[in-house]
Write a structure and sequence with these properties.
By secondary structure, this protein is of the alpha/beta class. It is built from 15 helices and 17 strands. The chain starts with 6 loop residues before the first helix and ends with a strand.
């Protein structure tokens, strides 16, 4: 039987809970006991199992795990031991609690936030630069990247663009990660005459003739293509006729769901029973989901499309699975949820859902034999962490080719006329990249747009269409 703790033992536990690295000398002085007594008591507490170890208290946001979610489960009692081992093996699970009441188990899951989208593109661009520099650089000059974080937000895009425009050596920018950041960045950099090429902005407004900024282009698809593709899949493959959508107010999500809605009606006379909006930091979606669950004449729609990002997307996925009336509703997202962190945060609730996004079934062996090994070398990741790395690689190479076509060499230096660079880039035609054959139009759309649909099967994304 364990020896009960006395008052001094409890004070020792309190002190070490606050500071596990406290020295024995400081501990003894704080408690007004001898150092030998402190040593003896701590050792006894360790041997008896009261103190099980000493660990670092890490800030999850500072370590890149900005998304946290509580996942609730119901399990059969006989299956608990087997399920427990499986749960402990899942990435991102930091705490498991058995509880009473409506649910049996609560998991605390931590995952990286939307940074994966930008980092994936950054790594792809760095691969292009590394390979070009290894081959002599641009006209004999090495290329350097200046990496900034746009925060996947309007404010972040504004700050990053203003910083980059102030650096004289910056001749072009590969970015932004999200359309929300792309809107202000395109305006700021166009005013400065700096070419901005995004590998992952997909909002239609960015290349709409009425709103297009003159120095903005992209190698990512236009969501006019993605939204239509998802509507085609819902109509022709899933045979659904009713749907609801959710967006988070970002240009990407709001415009993509609207393209889906318009095409859903046009292709198969599909009815959208509800279109809702959330905020990116929202955590409780119960009332919203209850509204959707009764939006189809008192019942739920057959299909639920929410092309948003990891944090809110994972929570909506979990909560939709437990919303009365939505048991048979098909859940679907888009490329903003196409990353390992979404799978970790959503857990088993993501199983079976569908996601639209760029088709990663690239032709040729360069991607597997050359690009991916260099990507791993640059990133330390065994596999790409999101879906736009190849688009960034193509964007970087197209920019470097355009620089070579307009640069002026004088006295060992390169002078790159900004408007000439913009014109040369926009004149790109028939460029053979990883993502296909790219040709830019006058509004900056350059992608060889190919969209596929994947399904989450056994905790992994599996391409199923076309």
């Amino acid at each position: 039987m364990a020896q009960p703790l006395d008052a001094v033992d409890r004070r020792i536990v309190d002190q070490l809970t606050e500071d596990g690295r406290m020295s024995m000398r400081t501990l003894a002085e704080t408690l007004h006991i001898s150092r030998a007594n402190a040593y003896a008591r701590v050792e006894r507490l360790r041997e008896s199992g009261v103190i099980r170890g000493f660990r670092a208290d890490l800030d999850p946001v500072a370590t890149g795990l900005g998304t946290s979610a509580y996942v609730t489960l119901n399990v059969r009692q006989a299956d608990w031991r087997q399920i427990r081992e499986h749960l402990l093996s899942l990435p991102g699970v930091v705490h498991i609690a058995l509880v009473g009441g409506e649910f049996d188990v609560v998991l605390l899951v931590r995952a990286r936030d939307n940074a994966d989208l930008g980092l994936d593109s950054q790594y792809g661009a760095q691969v292009a630069v590394n390979l070009r520099n290894n081959d002599g650089g641009v006209l004999g000059h090495d290329v350097e990247l200046n990496n900034q974080d746009d925060g996947c937000s309007s404010d972040g895009g504004t700050s990053a663009a203003n910083l980059l425009r102030s650096i004289p050596e910056i001749v072009a920018v590969i970015g932004t990660s999200c359309s929300s950041a792309g809107v202000p960045a395109a305006q700021i950099l166009s005013e400065a005459g700096i070419l901005l090429v995004s590998p992952s902005n997909t909002a239609p407004s960015l290349t709409d003739p009425a709103t297009h900024e003159p120095f903005y282009a992209r190698t990512a698809h236009n969501d006019k293509v993605q939204g239509k593709a998802m509507a085609e899949y819902a109509c022709s493959e899933l045979k659904v006729t009713t749907a609801a959508t959710v967006h988070d107010g970002s240009p990407y999500a709001e415009q993509l769901q609207q393209v889906f809605v318009d095409n859903f009606a046009e292709i198969c006379n599909g009815e959208t029973t509800d279109q809702e909006a959330v905020t990116p930091d929202q955590r409780d979606f119960a009332s919203l989901l209850q509204s959707i669950a009764t939006s189809n004449g008192g019942s739920a729609p057959e299909f639920f499309y929410y092309p948003i990002f990891t944090a809110a997307g994972a929570l909506i996925t979990q909560q939709a699975r437990t919303t009365t009336g939505m048991e048979d509703t098909i859940l679907a997202g888009a490329d903003g949820l196409f990353n390992p962190d979404f799978l970790a945060a959503a857990g088993d609730a993501a199983e079976g859902m569908y996601l639209s996004g760029p088709d990663l079934a690239f032709s040729g062996d360069f991607y597997e034999s050359t690009f991916k090994p260099e990507y791993t070398s640059v990133s330390g990741e065994p596999e790409p962490i999101s879906v736009f790395h190849a688009h960034a690689y193509d964007a970087a190479n197209m920019i470097m080719d355009a620089i070579e076509s307009v640069a002026i060499e004088e006295g060992g230096s390169l002078f790159i006329p900004r408007t000439a660079l913009r014109d040369a880039f926009f004149a790109t035609s028939g460029y053979e990249g990883i993502t296909g054959t790219l040709t830019c139009n006058e509004d900056g759309d350059c992608a060889d747009a190919k969209i596929s649909v994947s399904q989450v099967q056994d905790g992994a994304y599996v391409r199923i269409w076309p």
